[in-house]
Amino acid sequence: MSTIDQINSVFQTVSDTILNKIKEGEALTLELAAERSQFTRFNNAKVRQSGLVNDGYLGLRLISGSKTASRTVPFTGDLTIDAKTAREALEKLREETPQLPDDPFIILPQNQGGSYAMYDAKLLPETEVAEIILSPVKGLDFTGLYSAGDIIRANRNSAGQSHWFSTRNYIVDYSLITPQEKMVKGIFAGSDWDEAAWKKNIENAKEQFQYLSLPPKTVPRGKYRSYLAPAAVADLLNMLSWDGISENAMQQGNSALLKMRRDNKRWSYRFTLRENFTAGLVPCFNELGETAPEILPLIVEGELQNTLISSRSAKEYGKEANGASGNEGLRSPEILPGNLPREEILKALDTGLYLSNLHYLNWSDNAGGRITGMTRYACFWVENGKIVAPIENMRWDETLYHIFGDKLMALTDFQELVPETSSYNMRSLGGTVVPGALVEDFSFTL
Fold first, then answer.
1. How far from 384 is each of 79, 109, 381, CA to CA, in Å?
2. Which DSSP category does 217 fall into?
3. Contact, 247 vs 317, CB < 8 A?
4. Do residues 77 and 195 both lie within one domain?
5. Is residue 1's pLDDT more than 80?
6. What CA–CA distance (Å, rounded) separates 116 from 163?
7. Are 204 and 226 found together in one domain?
């Protein structure tokens, strides 16, 4: 695939060609997802795999009368190939739609105004990645993945609407591993590479790493004051994209926040959650080309103000859409900070558990907002404001109404970006911006 400008040119030309073929009674939305990325995989502080990936997909969504069908095809950046592939996909959709049932909540494309956003960055030179990343971790079992490059999202429709979003960024997703296979998990992400900040990130990880050599402590089940680092808070927040903040889930009685609407339950006044697209981490337009507000308050000082409402849910339930994606999940969430300074965290925790990461999260009581999961990586027992031992893995089971509600003691005065690191189909966009949280009586069951 070629440069961003060339990809844009090919996409616009292919779109013009296909949109000009739309017949009376038809409507079409075109969606582009593409990347030009470098991937370098490390194991034991050595490069194990490195390469460049150029990839792209073109999604077509055809509406014919009251029927709709979708198809996804490869996008190469070669005009001849991509135009031919798109034309064939359109004809296949025309063959499929007559065989489909009517869609009572069909959403026709609209022209709500276009957008163009391109974010540049200064990434590591491809030939210097290994030297710069491995320099501060010599002598350690450093394992992880560096991914960096351009990510593109674009959308056009037959109503005349056009959006373009491209960004450049990097993520170093890594672990420091002891001979006993205990791990400290770290993430370093951004746009412009900052070598001093990278070394500081590693120094912070090394500080936790040294505690992993201490004899582990088995903590009996019970309720403990706990500090949840930003990565752990992000794990909890991401659960709201799964039958949480969705209007459809609310209407069907599946939402974990149902008590906040039906019973007027509140969370702590310390807790404010919003969607914030101003940082440009993700496009503000969804897969239909609909644009969300730059800032959408969701839970303000513990009170539910808005859910995420897709056009389909709006039509089905008589609501007003707010640019949510079809799955009504969080796309650019931010929890506002509190007033607990970084240097005061252990003192405020006093005696309890320091939780760096959580994993295997699942709803144990969806309607009650209760989540179960495990501790992971560098989690520690703290006594009198000092880390004294790593802990054995523990299972916990707790409700969001306690974690972010009546048991929330404080949020940190700093936030961290916890990026999306998935690269299953292609590199993911965005992440969560969150503080750490100090919680009283966090429940551990095993």
1. 66, 60, 10
2. B
3. yes
4. yes
5. no
6. 6
7. no
